[in-house]
Amino acid sequence: MLTADSQTILVIYYLFVNIYFVSLLQQKPQQLTTIVAEKYRIMRAYAKIYLDYRAKQDGLHNVKIRVTFGTRRKHYGTDFDLTPAEFDKIFYRKKKTTTQLTKDQQNIKTTLEALQSKATNIIDKLDPFTYPDFEKHFLSSNDMFGSVLSAFNDSIDELNTDGRTATAINYRASITSLESYKKNLKFTDITVKFLKNYERWMLNNGRSITTVGMYLR
């Protein structure tokens, strides 16, 4: 607990700080702008290649591009699914190791690093950075990033955080069913024909029309 003298010192300190910034704003607005800009620079967003810790039904994990800004993170799924061992071999291989990457592994590494670089370039051009502005440039030109599974996982995480467990369970059932029908589903795959075929597939597998409606609402 603070003593009376300590509380007095804190009050004087914060009073001094407030007076300083008011004076700075009046006399040297450019200097204050520089201070704020430097704080913003330290909090700049960055992109990283990330392996989702959640395994899919086939035991593989989706590789994502994770964009961090301050304390917030968002993940953007890709078409690449790997085991943790494969991911470590491709991206965290020791320089002196004699084990070489296969051609497919090298192609995966090159493609994902190029996508990470593109994300970084977009981030660098956004001032200020916002996720909606980033996604407008990043997602629109990359169909492979329109991952339905990734979008569902993000929504499920948010629902669980908000305590909406029942809705999160329904979302998980929906995406599990959709992924069973078509692996690596992207938003560009969802058409009227796709929905009709999915409905027919569900009914042929013993599901009711009510269940189909619940999964697609």
Verbal overview:
The chain is 59% helix and 12% strand. By secondary structure, the chain is mainly alpha-helical. β2 and β3 form a beta hairpin. The protein starts with a helix and ends with a helix.
Radius of gyration from CA coordinates: 24 Å
- Main β-sheet description: 3 strands, antiparallel
Strand content: 5-15%
Number of helices: 9
Strand order of the largest sheet: 1-2-3
Low-confidence parts: 141-145
Q: Give helix % range.
A: 55-70%
Shape: globular
Distance linking N and C termini: 55 Å
Q: Give the H and E element order.
A: HHEEEHHHHHHH
pLDDT averaged over residues: 78
Number of strands: 3
Derived from helix and strand composition plus strand pairing, the structural class reads mainly alpha
Based on the model shown, name its key terms.
mainly alpha; 59% helix; 12% strand; three-stranded antiparallel β-sheet; single chain
